[in-house]
Amino acid sequence: MNAIYVLVTAARNEEDYIERTLKSVVSQTILPKKWIIVCNNCTDNTEKIVSSYSGKYGFIQLKNLKGDESRNTAAKVFAINAGLELIKDLNYQFVGNIDADIELESDYFERLIMKFIQYQNLGIAGGWINELQNGITRERFGNSEQRVPGSVQMFRRECFEMIGGYMPLRTGGEDSTAEVTARMYGWVVKSFPDLKVLHNRITSIEKCNILYTRFRQGKEDYYLGNHPLFEVFKFIKRTRERPFFIGSIFRIIGYLLELIRNRSIIIPTDVVRHLRKEQMIRIKSLFKL
Questions:
Q1: How far is CA 206 from CA 65, 145, 177, 193, in A?
Q2: Predicted TM-score (pTM) of this structure
Q3: Which domains does the chain have, with CATH numbers?
Q4: What is the rounded CA–CA span in Å between residue 140 and residue 152?
Q5: Which of 152, 136, 34, 141 is closest to 101 using CA atoms?
Q6: For residue range 19-54, what is the model confidence (pLDDT) as tens digits?
């Protein structure tokens, strides 16, 4: 297989997880041409751990980034872009954004690239997220073949460049925005259940305040341009997600507060229009069953 891929990881104080990610990537049956790990204002041993691997494996490169010390997705996107700047002149066909807290099967990237070869219109692809909960590995709530988690998004290079990469959004959702934009341009976005990914940090659960996390996610839904009716259906579906019911209430309150305030949505109008068209199609399909 002659396919060439590169990886970028934005890491912020990931000493508890990043070595597992490093081990799983260096064990791949097909190695990346380059893997830029951006240490974004790290104050723990993340830099030291990455340096120990970059000294052994020439394709791993560490970049230290100083600046915005807040832990938000805009800062993450700026870190990713700083990593991409280092590989812009390389010849490659696929570019992956992977988080610093995941583990992959040894043939993960080989099989993922085969998906891209099999489906020529596949623009964004990735694996199926599993999480360790109470000592048991379970599929993450909300996994969908029509979405690719931001922690494991792989792009065909033409797709990534066509959509302009990730949009830095302080409220989050840069991965979802990339997907909607890609579909708007005619690319297919797909997750594959047979490609297992272990996410070592449980998604959406911030220490001490899960309800605030749900509230923040509701605000994110608004700024992504979600249609109000779609948000209602999403609220109903999410009542099954922990913490049951009350978390969904906090989420929809976050959305409604921003809606009432009539906050500006910075996502391009054509992207929001396409997103809402997709959402209405999904709602209508529920009534055709």
A1: 24, 26, 23, 26
A2: 0.89
A3: 5-199 (3.90.550.10), 210-286 (no CATH)
A4: 14
A5: 152
A6: 999 999 999 999 999 999 999 889 999 999 999 999
